[in-house]
Design a protein that fits this description.
Blueprint (H helix, E strand, L loop, with lengths): L3 H13 L4 E6 L2 E8 L2 E7 L5 H36 L5 E4 L4 E4 L15 E2 L4 E7 L2 E6 L4 E6 L6 E2 L4 E7 L1
Antiparallel strand pairs: 1-2, 2-3, 4-11, 5-7, 5-10, 6-9, 7-8, 9-11
């Protein structure tokens, strides 16, 4: 059975993707999500033996989902609003491929992967994004110089959120 936190993560991932409809079945429980006019409808079809328990999860999840996602949308707009005043010259943005926690170094006592002014190649590791206890190394995907770091170490990042700006060669 899925935990409420796992359902929330699925909702966020589906909301931020181009997928319009999603179904998942495990241990006799089916979860279906469908986007419609900017809102998500979450429908859980529980096994009859645990119907009351699943219904409680569904009722708790639905009201909490809308308020949780609205602040995320606002925070994604903030960097856009700050961009004109920063006026940093760049050609490429390195974005987070997932929701998770940003780490600028491989361990707390290690040096950071990159800093402003660092030269990177396409395969250079620039940071780690931890998602569900998996540490994912993020590559630059472009040759150039790091001109701006947009997030702090230990900060939660969203899917598609810009992490670095790169002036390509």
């Amino acid at each position: 059975m899925l935990k409420v936190q796992e359902i929330r993560e699925l909702i966020k991932l589906i909301d931020e993707s181009s997928i319009d409809e999603f179904s998942y079945e495990t241990n006799g429980t089916t979860i279906s999500m469908k986007k419609s006019s900017g809102e998500q409808i979450v429908k859980a079809e529980p096994v009859p033996a645990v119907e009351k328990r699943e219904t409680a999860v569904q009722q708790t999840e639905a009201p909490q989902t809308a308020p949780v996602e609205k602040p995320a949308e606002v925070s994604q707009e903030e960097p856009v609003a700050n961009t004109p005043s920063n006026a940093v010259d760049y050609d490429h943005e390195i974005v987070s491929p997932m929701v998770g926690t940003f780490y600028s170094s491989p361990s707390p006592d290690s040096d950071v992967y990159v800093k402003v002014g660092s030269q990177v190649e396409k395969s250079s590791i620039v940071c780690i994004v931890e998602a569900m206890k998996l540490f994912n190394e993020i590559e630059a995907e472009a040759n150039g110089e790091i001109v701006e770091i947009l997030v702090e170490n230990g900060e939660l990042v969203e899917y598609g959120q810009p992490l670095f700006r790169v002036k390509t060669k």
